[in-house]
Write a structure and sequence with these properties.
mainly alpha, elongated
Length: about 250
């Protein structure tokens, strides 16, 4: 599948509030075509670079806002778990209800963080591809210098979010029995097959695997192949995806 179609499909499948935050690949592609046939090459290139910089600013603002929110929510979840484990519940039923709510919140939280890592991946990939098109169509040499700039941007720096994702997976594996998590996720699959975090997370994982798979055409601009961790949560996503792989 061509990147433009894959991006469009992914944007349609992501959270509604995120849809305007992705790379405007279609308009940038049109501009590349116009520039390649323009007599005012210098002016057109300046417009192209201006739009790319605006896209980077958009990515950074959105990514940093989400990252800050995730840090706060992660601390809150850890505090909730600590409170439940250290306090004496009035009944076993009350304890189980609160742990069930925590399980659901962790799974949702994990899903949103996976979406943000994928947000970084797919926007970087789109930038690399549109710059490749630009250089090929115009004979310019923008890609190398511009990608070096992109690699230094906050939206490309996913180490903190990836660390929180792994901590979520470890928490689920350590605190909750496999059978219990499977029941929760099975319910999520049934109730959220058409919408919600579960479906979005599966779509994001499939997209990340696709855009980061090894191929004979990879270059130093390509993201490394994705190796998913072997956790109960990830295994369930892979085995019970309610949507087809891209």
């Amino acid at each position: 599948m061509k990147f433009g179609k894959r991006l469009k499909q992914h944007v349609e499948e992501t959270l509604p509030g995120w849809r305007d935050m992705y790379l405007n690949y279609k308009d940038l592609k049109k501009l590349v075509r116009l520039i390649s046939s323009s007599l005012e090459y210098g002016k057109s290139e300046a417009e192209f670079v201006y739009l790319l910089n605006n896209e980077i600013d958009k990515f950074n603002m959105f990514f940093m806002e989400q990252e800050e929110d995730f840090i706060i929510r992660h601390k809150e979840l850890q505090q909730r778990i600590k409170r439940v484990n250290e306090s004496e519940p009035s009944s076993q039923e009350e304890y189980e209800e609160e742990m069930s709510r925590i399980r659901k919140d962790i799974v949702d939280f994990h899903g949103e963080m996976v979406l943000l890592v994928n947000y970084s991946n797919i926007n970087y990939t789109g930038m690399a591809k549109i710059l490749k098109k630009y250089d090929k169509r115009t004979g310019g040499l923008l890609r190398l210098a511009f990608i070096q700039k992109v690699l230094e941007q906050p939206f490309f720096t996913t180490e903190l979010v990836s660390k929180l994702v792994k901590e979520c997976e470890t928490t689920i594996d350590e605190l909750f029995p496999t059978a219990m998590v499977a029941v929760e996720l099975k319910d999520a699959t049934i109730t959220m097959v058409g919408e919600g975090i579960f479906r979005n997370t599966v779509a994001a994982l499939m997209t990340m695997k696709e855009i980061r798979k090894g191929s004979s055409t990879q270059s130093h601009f390509s993201l490394p192949a994705l190796s998913l961790p072997d956790t109960e949560l990830i295994r369930y996503f892979q085995l019970n995806s309610p949507i087809p792989s891209i």
